[in-house]
Amino acid sequence: MRNVPPVDLPSSDAAAERDTRFFGQPFALAHVFGVEMWERFSFYGMQGILLLYLYFSVADGGLGIDKTVAASIVGAYGGAVYLSTVLGAWVADRILGAERVLFFSAIVIMAGHIALALLPGFAGVTVGLILVAFGSGGLKATATSVVGTLYTADDARRDAGFSLFYLGINLGAFAGPILTGLLQSALGFHWGFGLAALGMALGLTQYSFGRRSLPAESRHVPNPLPRGRYPLVAGIGVAAVVVVVALVLTGVVRADNLALIVIGAVILAAIAYFAVILLSRQITATERSRVWGFLPLFVTSVVFWSLYQQQFTVVTLYSAERLNRNLFGWEMPIPWVQSINPVFIILLAGVFTAIWSKLGSRQPSTPVKFAVGVAVMGVAFLLFLPFAGGGENSTPLLAIVGILLVFTVAELMLSPVGLSAATKLAPERFQTQMVALFFLSVSLGTAISGQLATLYDPTNEVPYFATLGLISIVMGVLLLVCVKPVLALMKGVR
């Protein structure tokens, strides 16, 4: 898909623009919507109980890991998920095409959840999280890229379509923690992990029947790897696995430093990715300028996700120790807190979709949306301050609901817009890999959120929430000041 549309649209593109069968969007969106919804069900259902499984005592069915180390592991795992989008995107762009990588990744994810459900102790965590990380990474970048193939570059429905796609993500994200949390509370952690595996199996089955109706462009390999280089790539892959295993066995990579290692790896990967794309002779001057325009959005996204992803680290710990979860004499399971944000996404995604569709070309530009999103995220952290330093059950449930509502507004201003921007700013030969760059910003922010969790002190919360909130607001102000030069670099893309 070219970023600049041809003068005369091919008939297939014209037909796609007339197809409004799925809530005003192309019907093919329903198939990607479905598999992503079930993948998010399994992903967030598992992640909703993961931190608790790691730090709950053995007597309570957990592994008894120190809370700080457990939170760091969750952050590092989340960062590894998004880091693996690089591998998935590379395979899509060079070997298999986006749609095939999406399909095979769904199979790997299901295997990972089965491992978590059936294998006991650290063995299940290690095997399961590695498989889920690689599978989710492959599915994330490619699902977004496949959605991008459903629209022409100037289709006014594009941002609205991505917002609808985001609704599917959050339907799964809402139901996952609710149901796995119930099973974990009633029957144990492994039952919850088993339900996550079942959800992914349902998504894979549904997608298997619908994938044939996706456009041929979704299976296109934009920059094929020469066959003669396959053995070299395979050798590099095997060598990488050997090195990682050796580092783990020698104690260089440990649970307590995993987040820092992931942060370093993501930074190196991001620098390398930007360098490869910007130095490529296969992109035009306009495409190169657009990649430079993406750079400040990347940095802003890192700051945003380093706060937002603390829902799965600091906010989970806060909910377990500070939040009054009593509902008419019944104590709400801790994982249910993670379903509050998806509820607001479900309620508000349609509102944002309607707003962007109504405004059309008059809607705020992408840099403005990013700036507002990261600033609002900072405000959300400042809202913790009135409740800082309270005792057990001191924070009303309504308060955390309100704070997560602000989380949601910030997310809708930045996340679906970022996915759309990545596809619009992508050079023709780096379509899926540009989406992977956006996910690298999520990866870096998520890994940082795990490391930041080690600084969280329940006995002295004000400096933590105040500092991070103010940094995020300042980042938003700086991007607003730089909107005009960023738009100039984006060369007509808004």
TrEMBL record:
One of its GO terms (biological process) is oligopeptide transport. GO terms for cellular component: plasma membrane. CDD domains: MFS_DtpA_like (cd17346). It is a multi-pass membrane protein. One of its GO terms (molecular function) is peptide transmembrane transporter activity. Keywords: Cell membrane, Membrane, Transmembrane, Transmembrane helix, Transport. It comes from the Bacteria. The keyword Transport applies. It is found in: Cell membrane; Membrane. Residues 32-487 form the Major facilitator superfamily (MFS) profile domain. The chain crosses the membrane at residues 41-58, 70-92, 101-123, 129-152, 164-183, 189-209, 230-252, 258-279, 291-308, 336-356, 368-389, 395-414, 435-456, 462-487. Its main location: membrane. Pfam families: PTR2. NCBIfam families: yjdL_sub1_fam (TIGR00924). Belongs to the major facilitator superfamily. Proton-dependent oligopeptide transporter (POT/PTR) (TC 2.A.17) family. This is Proton-dependent oligopeptide transporter, POTfamily. The lineage of its organism: Bacteria, Bacillati, Actinomycetota, Actinomycetes, Micrococcales.
